Description:
The chain has helices at about 15-25, 35-50, 65-75, 100-125, 140, 150-170, 190, 195-200, 215-225; strands at about 5, 30-35, 55-60, 80-85, 130-135, 175-180, 235-240. It has 9 helices and 7 strands, in the order βαβαβαβαβααβαααβ. Strand 2 (about 30-35), helix 2 and strand 3 (about 55-60) form a beta-alpha-beta unit. It has one domain: NAD(P)-binding Rossmann-like Domain (Rossmann fold, 3-Layer(aba) Sandwich), CATH 3.40.50. About 45% of the residues are buried. The radius of gyration is 17 Å and the shape is globular. The protein is about 45% helix and about 15% strand. Strands 3-2-1-4-5-6-7 form a 7-stranded parallel sheet, with helices on both faces. It is of the alpha/beta class. The site of NADP nicotinamide-adenine-dinucleotide phosphate has 29 residues, from helix 1, strand 2 and helix 7. NADP nicotinamide-adenine-dinucleotide phosphate binds near residues 8, 13 and 110. Belongs to the short-chain dehydrogenases/reductases (SDR) family.
Amino acid sequence: MTPVTVITGGSRGIGAATARRLAHAGHHLALGYRRDHHTADTITAELRATGVRAVAVPADTRDPNQVTALFDAAAQLGPITGLVNNAGITSPIGPFTDLDPDDLRHVVDVNLIGYILCAQQAARRMTHGAAIVNISSAAATLGSPGEYVHYAAVKAATDALTIGLAKELAPHGIRVNAVAPGIIRTDIHALSGQPDRPDRAASRIPLGRPGEPDEVAAAIAWLLSPDASYTTGAILRVGGGL
Ligand code: NAP
């Protein structure tokens, strides 16, 4: 049976790199994204050219109805076997005391509520052998002082979600794991106001450089694969030693 995987935030960054890697492994793919139709359509065409089925679905993960529509579209490709819970945002980098309540709510809504809504749809539809990978962050254990402590706190919640769901879904044969990237070269840093953050951080990363999206995608693909059949409840750090 061909695997069918939903990737939220699949249009750019880590999500897009994961989509490319999974397409080469033969997965049919449903990519969720929020508003950048052009980028989503471009990657979807690229995936189809590899011979798999792929759809791009505008689905804001904060909205339960849009999440349901994303999973309905994925189900048209076949029984859903994988979810990469990836759509995430930060907010402007700065001291905790300057945090705007609207930015706080946005981070919680996308990175926590959105993850839970997607995991719930997945859990309702998946059967034995399926797997969920939640994209956490090294921030969950480092705390991101002076940058975005609230984001780190929400990523720690992702880890708790992973551990709890892994135990709850294990009797159904569904595995749940997390990948916790360090500092990866994507657009997320520009959106938080510091496009050069990966290069500036290089000197404090033990491997001496930021990561590339495909290096995170490799870990995600492994956790979704049968090679990880006995791995559940794991939080796999992909941070160059961070
Ligand atoms: P990115 O390049 O900024 O891409 C974010 C993706 O999420 C885009 O496809 C975007 O779609 C989508 N998205 C944003 N808000 C959404 C919403 N409300 N509903 C649905 N889709 C939404 O981000 P990234 O760096 O690849 O990050 C992916 C994940 O890795 C996030 O969970 C992030 O917290 C985590 N992470 C990243 C790093 C890093 O250094 N990059 C480190 C640790 C953890 P549109 O383009 O349509 O807006």
